[in-house]
C-alpha cells in the first residue's frame, strides 16, 4: 500500500482537482543562516567559555550542597529563613543551581555550538504493507490451523471456561479485605455509636463532663462521649478507647452541644422537647453530606456550617438543612442530666450518623 | 567507531579477534561486546539521527516526563524513612509542638522526614511540587495536543493513553497526598469514603473493603502506600513507555511551513541537538523543582496535626487537581431519593462519580467522535492552528471555562472571605454559571477564531498593513499594504480545506434514505455546525485576482513616485506638473 492510498478518502479525480487548487507552491525549506558562532571564531570561543563556566559554577553549587548538609543542623532551625528552615533553603538553593547550571550549560552548548542545520526525514504511513498483512494473516491462520483450535471446540471451550473460572478465585481471595457489609454487620458498625443510655457528654479537649449550667446561651461546645477523650485519671466503669477503635468511634460519636433560648427552638417530632435540657440540644457533629465534622457556628442565626462543602444546618429547627449539598438534617442525640447534674445521653442516636449509603433507611 | 565496523563483526568464526574494536580503545571494546550480544547497532543506526521538529509547545509533555523522573527519584528517598502504618505511637521527635501527642506511625515518620532527616523536608517538598508539575504539565500538554489537532489519525490511541495517564496521575497524587495521615489528608479520605458510600447498591461493601471495615480503621494507609509506590507507578511507567514508543513510531507532528509536508518531518537530529536539549531540559526541570522545594513551602503537615475524625479546619482545600471535583460537590443541590428503605444520594453520586466518568469519556472519545463527524480517514502530521478549527477550539475554551468555574466553586468559602461576598450567593451564581458561561464562551471563541481566519485571509490576499498612510489626489486616505513574504504566504495556505459532510450522498437514486440515514443526518448537521462558517483558504485563482488588484494599486502609487505627498503641492498655489488628477 503506497502512501497516497492512505491519504484522502476522496476519489482520485477530485483529489487531483484539489491539488490543482493549491493556491501557492511549497517554496521548500529556508536556506540555513549561519549564527555568529558559526562564522566568528571569537564568538565561538566566547560561547565555549560560557558553557564551561556554567558547568564550573554547578560544581561549586554541588560542593556547597555537601557543606550545607553537614553544617546546618535541621533540628534547631525549622523556623529560620521565613519559616522554611535554614538547612532546607540552603540545600534547595545549592542543589537547584547545581542542576539548573548543568541544564543551562548543555542547552547553551546545543544552541550555540552544535550544528543547527535542520534535516529532513520521510514519514511512512503507520499501516503495514499489503504483503506484510497477507503474510501475517497466513502465518496466523496456519498457526491456528495447526493448533486445531477451530476444529476442536471441546478443547477450546473447556480451556476458555477453565481460564475464565480462574477469575473467580482472584476476586474471592480478596473477600478478606474487609467484613462483608451485611445487615447485621452494618447494625453493629455504621448504625451503632459509642453513645449508650447514661454516657456523659464530655468536652472534646479537656475530657471534662459538661454541666447544664456550664453552658451559656448561644454557646456551642464540641463534645465526645466519655471514653473517647483521654484524661489523666480514668473514671471507673468507663471504657477508654485507643488507636483505630478510637478513631472509628470518633468518626461516628463526635457531637456538638449548643444552648439556645428555649423559646427560639422549634420542637418537632424529629426533635422533641424531652430530648433537650433547658434549651441545650446535642447534635451529631458529622455532616450528613460526606462526613466532615461540622464546626462553624453562627450564633445569631443558630446556623452551623460545614467547612468542607458549606452545608448549613439550623440547630434551632431540628438540624434542618438550610443551604448546601447535604440532603438530610443532622441526627440529634436525646439527652438528659444525671444525678450529679452532668449532661448524659438518653440512648444512642435513633438513626445512623454521617453520610448516606445505599442500605440506609432514611424515610 | 563506525557502524560498519560493528555490523561486520559477524561471529562466523571463533578463531581470531572479532572484526571491530581496535586495540587500546576500551569504549569500542565494550560496544563490540554489547553489540555481539544485543545487536544494538542495527537498532541505533535508525534512531541516533532521528529527526525531532522544534517548537516551544512540544516541550510541555517533556516537563511531564521529567517531573515523573523527579518523582521517582525523590519518592525512593522518602520511602527509605516513611512508615506506612496506622499503629498509634507517641511522637518523640524534634518538633516541639507535637511532642508527646499520640498519632499514627505514618504521621510520626512524616514529621521525622521533615525534622530529623537532613534533606528530608527538601525531598518531601520536591516530591509534592513535582507531583503538581507532573499533573499540570500533562493537562497543558493535553490542551496543546487538542488545540493543534495532534490527536488525529494515526495518533488516536496515543491520545487515549495520555488521557489514562492523567487519570492515573490524579489518582496517584491523591493516594500520595493521603499517606502522611495528617488532619487535612484524613479529611480528604473521609470525603472519599463518603463518595464511595454513595455508590448505588455496592457502596457500603466497597467502603468496607477499602478501609478493612469502618472508616478510618488501620488498613487504609498501608494499602494506599502499595498502590502509591508500586501499582500506579508501574502502570504509569508502562503507559509512559507505550506513549513514547508510539511517539517514536509515528514520528512527531510538525507545524506547517516551507518544506514541511504531511510526508516528511523537518528538524534537528536526536544526536546531538535534541539529546542535548532534552537532556539539558531534564536538569532544568529537576533544578527548578529543587528551588521550589527549598524556597516554597508546600503541605506543611506539622501545622495541621495528626488526623482526628472529629476535627477539621476552616478553609480546608484539596490539592488543586481535585479542585473541580470539590467544586462539583459544593454546588450540587442536596437531593436524595429514599425508596423502599434505601437511599440514593444524587448530591454525592452525580458530582463524585458520574461527572468524572462522563468527563473522562468525553476526553477519551473525542478523536473518534471528530473523525466520525468529518469522515476523515487521512493521516495528519501537520498541526492545525487553533483558529483553523474554530469549533474544536471553542469546545476546549468552553470546557476550560467550566473547569475554571468549578475550581472557583471549590474555593467558594475562600472567595467569600477575600472578596467579602455572600457564600450562598457565590454558590447560587455558580449553579447557573456552569451552564450559561460555557455556552457564551463557546460562541465567542468560535466567532473569534473565524475572525482570525478572516484576518489571515486578508493578509494573504491583500498583504500586511505597513503603517504608511497614502493620501489620494481626491483627499482620501488609504493605508499601504505590502504582500507578506513567500514563506509566510505559503504557511498561511498550508492547511486542508474543510469538507462539509453531505447526508444526501447517502440516499439512493430515488432520494429515499437508506437505513441509518437518521444518523447520517445528525452527522451532516454536526459537520455543518463544525465547518460551515469557517473561512477556507483561497484558491489559486482568488490569489491571482488579489495580486492583480494589488498590482493596479501599485501602478497608481508608482505613478505618483517623485511627488512627495507633503500636501503643499495640492494647495492650489503651486503648479503641479503631470498631475492630471488635480484638474478633474
From TrEMBL, chain B:
The keyword Iron applies. Keywords: Cell membrane, Electron transport, Heme, Iron, Membrane, Metal-binding, Respiratory chain, Translocase, Transmembrane, Transmembrane helix, Transport. The chain crosses the membrane at residues 63-82, 131-151, 157-179, 225-250, 271-298, 354-373, 394-419, 425-445. Its main location: membrane. GO terms for molecular function: metal ion binding; oxidoreductase activity; quinol-cytochrome-c reductase activity. It is found in: Cell membrane. PROSITE patterns: CYTB_NTER. It is a multi-pass membrane protein. Residues 1-12 have a biased composition (Polar residues). It holds the Pfam family Cytochrom_B_N_2. Residues 30-256 form the Cytochrome b/b6 N-terminal region profile domain. GO terms for cellular component: plasma membrane. Residues 14-27 have a biased composition (Low complexity). It catalyses: a quinol + 2 Fe(III)-[cytochrome c](out) = a quinone + 2 Fe(II)-[cytochrome c](out) + 2 H(+)(out). Residues 1-27, 559-584 are annotated as: Disordered. It is an enzyme of class 7 (translocase). Its EC number is 7.1.1.8. The keyword Flavoprotein does not apply. Its cofactor is heme. GO terms for biological process: respiratory electron transport chain. PANTHER family: CYTOCHROME B (PTHR19271:SF16). This is Cytochrome bc1 complex cytochrome b subunit. It comes from Nocardioides guangzhouensis.
Amino acid at each position: 500500500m503506497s502512501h497516497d492510498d492512505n491519504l484522502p478518502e476522496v476519489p482520485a479525480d477530485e483529489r487531483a482537482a484539489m491539488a490543482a487548487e493549491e493556491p501557492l507552491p511549497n517554496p521548500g525549506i529556508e536556506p540555513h543562516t549561519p549564527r555568529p558562532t558559526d562564522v566568528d571564531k571569537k564568538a565561538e570561543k566566547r560561547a565555549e567559555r560560557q558553557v564551561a563556566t556554567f558547568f564550573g559554577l554547578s560544581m561549586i553549587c554541588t560542593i556547597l550542597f555537601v557543606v550545607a548538609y553537614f553544617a546546618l543542623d535541621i533540628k534547631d532551625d525549622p523556623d529560620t529563613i521565613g519559616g522554611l528552615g535554614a538547612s532546607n533553603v540552603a540545600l534547595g538553593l545549592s542543589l537547584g543551581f547545581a542542576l539548573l547550571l548543568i541544564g543551562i550549560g548543555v542547552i547553551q552548548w546545543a544552541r550555540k555550538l552544535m550544528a543547527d542545520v535542520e534535516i529532513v526525514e520521510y514519514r511512512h504511513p503507520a499501516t503495514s504493507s499489503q504483503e506484510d498483512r497477507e503474510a501475517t494473516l497466513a502465518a496466523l491462520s496456519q498457526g491456528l490451523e495447526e493448533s486445531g483450535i477451530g476444529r476442536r471446540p471441546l478443547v477450546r471451550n473447556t480451556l476458555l471456561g477453565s481460564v475464565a473460572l480462574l477469575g473467580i478465585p482472584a476476586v474471592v481471595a480478596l473477600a478478606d479485605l474487609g467484613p462483608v457489609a451485611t445487615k447485621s454487620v452494618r447494625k453493629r458498625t455504621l448504625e451503632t455509636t459509642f453513645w449508650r443510655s447514661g454516657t456523659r457528654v464530655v468536652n472534646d479537649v479537656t475530657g471534662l463532663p459538661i454541666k447544664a449550667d456550664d453552658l451559656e446561651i448561644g454557646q456551642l461546645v464540641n463534645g465526645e462521649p466519655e471514653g473517647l477523650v483521654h484524661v489523666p485519671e480514668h473514671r471507673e466503669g468507663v471504657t477508654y478507647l485507643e488507636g483505630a477503635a478510637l478513631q472509628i468511634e470518633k468518626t461516628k460519636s463526635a457531637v456538638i452541644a449548643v444552648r439556645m433560648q428555649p423559646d427560639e427552638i422549634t420542637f418537632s417530632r424529629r426533635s422533641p422537647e424531652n430530648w433537650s435540657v433547658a434549651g441545650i440540644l446535642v447534635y451529631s457533629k458529622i455532616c450528613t453530606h460526606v462526613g466532615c465534622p461540622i464546626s462553624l457556628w453562627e450564633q445569631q442565626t443558630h446556623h452551623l456550617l460545614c467547612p468542607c462543602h458549606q452545608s448549613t444546618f439550623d440547630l434551632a429547627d431540628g438540624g434542618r438543612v438550610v443551604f448546601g449539598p447535604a440532603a438530610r438534617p443532622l441526627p440529634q442525640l436525646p439527652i438528659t442530666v444525671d444525678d450529679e447534674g452532668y449532661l448524659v445521653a438518653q440512648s444512642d442516636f435513633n438513626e445512623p450518623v454521617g453520610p448516606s449509603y445505599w442500605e440506609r433507611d432514611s424515610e | 567507531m563506525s557502524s560498519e565496523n560493528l555490523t561486520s563483526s559477524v561471529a562466523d568464526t571463533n578463531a581470531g579477534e572479532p572484526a571491530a574494536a581496535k586495540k587500546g580503545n576500551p569504549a569500542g571494546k565494550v560496544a563490540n561486546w554489547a553489540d555481539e550480544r544485543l545487536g544494538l547497532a542495527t537498532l541505533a543506526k535508525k534512531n541516533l539521527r532521528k529527526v525531532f521538529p522544534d517548537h516551544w509547545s512540544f516541550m510541555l509533555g517533556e516537563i511531564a516526563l521529567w517531573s515523573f523522573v523527579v518523582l521517582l527519584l525523590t519518592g525512593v528517598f522518602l520511602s527509605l524513612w516513611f512508615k506506612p502504618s496506622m499503629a498509634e505511637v507517641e511522637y518523640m521527635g524534634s518538633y516541639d509542638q507535637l511532642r508527646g501527642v499520640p498519632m499514627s506511625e505514618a504521621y510520626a515518620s512524616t514529621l521525622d522526614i521533615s525534622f530529623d532527616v537532613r534533606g528530608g523536608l527538601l525531598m518531601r517538598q520536591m516530591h509534592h511540587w513535582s507531583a503538581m508539575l507532573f499533573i499540570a504539565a500533562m493537562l497543558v500538554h493535553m490542551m496543546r495536543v487538542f488545540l493543534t489537532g495532534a490527536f488525529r489519525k494515526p495518533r488516536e490511541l496515543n491520545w487515549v493513553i495520555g488521557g489514562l495517564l492523567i487519570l492515573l496521575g490524579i489518582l496517584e497524587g491523591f493516594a500520595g497526598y493521603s499517606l502522611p495521615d495528617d488532619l487535612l489528608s484524613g479529611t480528604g479520605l473521609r470525603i472519599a469514603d463518603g463518595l464511595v458510600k454513595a455508590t448505588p447498591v455496592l457502596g457500603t461493601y466497597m467502603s468496607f473493603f477499602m478501609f478493612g471495615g469502618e472508616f478510618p480503621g488501620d488498613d487504609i494507609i498501608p494499602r494506599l502506600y502499595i498502590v502509591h509506590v508500586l501499582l500506579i507507578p508501574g502502570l504509569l511507567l508502562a503507559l509512559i513507555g507505550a506513549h513514547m514508543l508510539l511517539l517514536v513510531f509515528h514520528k512527531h507532528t510538525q507545524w506547517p511551513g516551507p518544506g514541511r509536508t504531511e510526508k516528511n518531518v523537518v528538524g534537528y537530529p536526536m544526536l546531538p541537538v535534541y539529546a542535548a536539549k532534552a537532556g539539558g531540559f531534564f536538569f532544568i526541570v529537576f533544578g527548578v523543582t529543587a528551588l521550589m522545594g527549598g524556597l516554597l513551602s508546600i503541605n506543611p503537615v506539622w501545622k495541621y496535626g495528626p488526623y482526628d475524625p472529629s476535627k477539621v479546619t476552616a478553609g480546608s482545600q484539596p490539592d488543586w487537581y481535585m479542585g473541580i471535583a470539590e467544586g462539583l460537590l459544593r454546588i450540587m443541590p442536596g437531593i436524595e431519593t429514599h425508596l423502599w428503605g434505601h437511599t440514593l444520594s444524587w448530591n454525592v453520586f452525580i458530582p463524585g462519580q458520574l461527572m468524572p466518568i462522563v468527563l473522562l469519556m468525553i476526553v477519551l472519545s473525542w478523536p473518534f467522535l471528530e473523525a466520525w463527524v468529518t469522515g476523515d480517514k487521512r493521516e495528519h502530521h501537520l498541526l492545525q492552528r487553533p483558529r483553523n478549527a474554530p469549533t474544536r477550539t471553542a469546545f476546549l475554551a468552553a470546557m476550560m471555562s467550566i473547569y475554571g468555574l468549578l475550581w472557583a466553586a471549590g474555593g467558594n468559602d475562600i472567595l467569600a472571605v477575600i472578596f467579602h461576598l455572600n457564600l450562598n450567593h457565590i454558590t447560587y451564581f455558580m449553579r447557573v454559571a456552569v451552564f450559561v458561561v460555557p455556552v457564551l464562551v463557546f460562541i465567542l471563541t468560535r466567532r473569534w477564531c473565524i475572525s482570525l481566519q478572516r484576518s489571515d485571509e486578508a493578509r494573504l490576499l491583500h498583504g500586511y498593513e505597513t503603517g504608511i498612510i497614502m493620501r489620494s489626489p481626491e483627499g482620501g486616505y488609504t493605508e499601504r499594504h505590502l504582500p507578506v513574504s513567500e514563506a509566510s504566504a505559503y504557511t498561511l495556505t498550508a492547511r486542508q480545506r474543510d469538507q462539509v459532510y453531505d447526508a444526501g450522498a447517502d440516499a439512493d437514486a430515488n432520494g429515499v434514505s437508506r437505513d441509518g440515514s437518521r444518523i447520517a443526518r445528525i452527522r451532516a448537521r454536526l459537520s455543518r455546525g463544525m465547518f460551515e462558517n469557517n473561512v477556507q483558504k483561497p484558491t489559486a485563482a482568488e490569489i491571482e485576482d488579489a495580486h492583480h488588484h494589488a498590482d493596479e494599486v501599485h501602478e497608481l502609487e508608482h505613478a505618483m513616485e517623485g511627488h512627495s505627498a507633503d500636501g503643499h503641492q495640492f494647495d492650489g498655489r503651486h503648479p503641479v506638473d503631470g498631475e492630471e488628477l488635480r484638474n478633474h
